[in-house]
Amino acid sequence: MKNEYDIMVVGAGPAGSMAARFAAEQGVSVLMLEKDRDVGYPVRCGEAISKVGVEEFIPSDDKWITAKISKFSFNAPDGTEVILDFGEAGYVLERRIFDYELARTAADAGVEILTRAYVNDLLFDDGKVAGVKYEYHGEQKEVKAKVVIAADGVESRVGRWAGLETHIDFRDMESAVQITAANIPVDQNTLYFYFGKDVSPNGYFWIFPKGHNKANIGLGVSGIIGKKKSAQSFLDDFMSKHYPNAPVLTKIAGGVPCAITLKKISAPGIMLVGDAARQVNPLSGGGIASGMIGGKIAGTIAAEAIKMNKLDHILTYDKAWADRLGKRHETFNRIKEGIYNFSDEKFNNIAHSFNKIPYEKRTLGRLFTTALINQPSLLVDIARVFVV
Amino acid sequence: MYRQAKTGKLMIEILPDKCDFCGCCVGVCPEDAIELKEAEIFIIDPRCTNCSKCIWSCPIEVIKFNRDGVLAK
Fold it and tell me: By C-alpha distance, which of B27, B37, B31 is closest to A278?
């Protein structure tokens, strides 16, 4: 452990680990700090990911794949089920092992890792971020860095201390609760989504299989809904109605910042990645793959900046992210806003008309087209991000 | 107490024994008034304005208003 590093990464989730790894692979020195005692645990939220999203970063491994996904099941409030089949295209992960393995790939690239290191302030030099202050085993410490990469998740406090506007509107925060339950006899290759105001207003309720009839079950609710009824309360209602006796193996809470990327995700000496930068796909709420992409771009640019001895180069990160995914997320966000306030009746009607399309011709793009047929401007957006 | 002086007898309180340390409240807090460590959470009193956004965003209802010693949403 040194007193000074080229790059410091705060947070060892998927985005942080990838930022650290891609920087270290270019030969610069990297220290990654994690506040919890374990990398990958406690898990916060989300375990579904596309195969393509994973394999850009790590070869598929049965160690952290609990289920292989080939179908979506969308369930309308009146019970109508819409099934989409797309071949083996996704996984449900065991996050606590997955995150750990990602951090291991960072370590293999030369990243130093310190757990139980709680970052509580930044160091500045001439107005630029120049390192972090952190608490470790009860002692306050400091370490300097040329670039700090904040991967501190939904809290995103590090960016705030650097003067970036990271605070998230409570309406965009999907506060989620999820359990892993046993004895849930659903198809082990299907992701189930439930819609409707009684189940999950303005969002979706999910059941993701995790092998051996275990399942990840949960939902997120926006602060608007949370004012009246919490995610926990919706989950309790669903479980007592459908699976009253299912043993619960784990229960966790977590927040998903369902919004477009922050206006500014870099400033002199600092870059934000993952949830801290709001790199979540605002339509699906998925953030593992996009966070890893954000981390890769940031880590790569940060290392380039150090090698060129031109630290201003990190400011090109905003545009690099926008070009790779940021603009795409804006399109997803418009689609989300189009369907956000649909009534139960509307969901039922969509399911009924979509089920008239022959099974082999059903795609996600067609489903959204059916849903938004009366909003022509959004059909252009759908064509932009889905195969229709 | 500063918060009490600003808002009479309404005070936001986090019940640490029931908290899952998920960070939702920290993300939505406009004043950066919540400190969240590995398994420790507290409100930084001089910053809190009792705006309630943390209450609305808590997925498991562990943030409450303390009204004269009675906890309510």
Answer: B27
* Cβ within 8 Å of residue B29, ≥6 positions away: A167, B53, B54
- The strand pairing partners of A113, in sequence order, are A32
> Which DSSP symbol is given to A103?
H
At A76 the pLDDT is 97
Residue of chain B whose Cα is closest to the Cα of A115: B38
Residue with structure tokens 């562990």? B62
Q: Is A295:A58 a contact under the CB 8 Å cutoff? A: no
Cα distances from A243 to residues A215, A233, A380, in angstroms, run: 12, 15, 41
CA distance A30 to A114: 11
Interface check for A158 against chain B (CB to CB < 8 A): the answer is no
What is the distance between the alpha carbons of residues A292 and A57, in angstroms, rounded to a whole number?
8
Q: How near does any CA of chain A get to the CA of B5, in Å?
A: 25
Condensed to tens digits (0 to 9), the pLDDT of residues A292-323 reads 999 999 999 999 999 999 999 999 999 999 99
Cβ pair A232:B61 closer than 8 A? yes
Q: Verify whether the Cβ–Cβ distance B57 to A36 is below 8 Å.
A: no
C-alpha A57/C-alpha B33 separation (Å) is 36
Residues A41-86 have pLDDT tens digits of: 887 777 899 999 999 999 999 999 999 999 999 999 999 999 999 8
Nearest CB to A230; choose among B23, B53, B58: B58
CA dist., res. A64 & res. A95, Å (int): 7
CA distances from A184 to A81, A188, A258, A282 (A): 18, 10, 28, 28
The DSSP call for residue A132 is E
Q: How far apart are CA A173 and CA A171, in angstroms?
A: 6
Nearest 5 degrees, angle CA A43-CA A329-CA A377?
140
Q: Which residues, at least 6 apart from A225, have a Cβ–Cβ distance to it below 8 Å?
A: A201, A202
The pTM (predicted TM-score) of the whole model is 0.95
B57 vs A45, A175, A232: nearest CB? A175
Task: Please state whether A82 falls in left (phi above 0), alpha (psi between -120 and 50) or beta.
Answer: beta
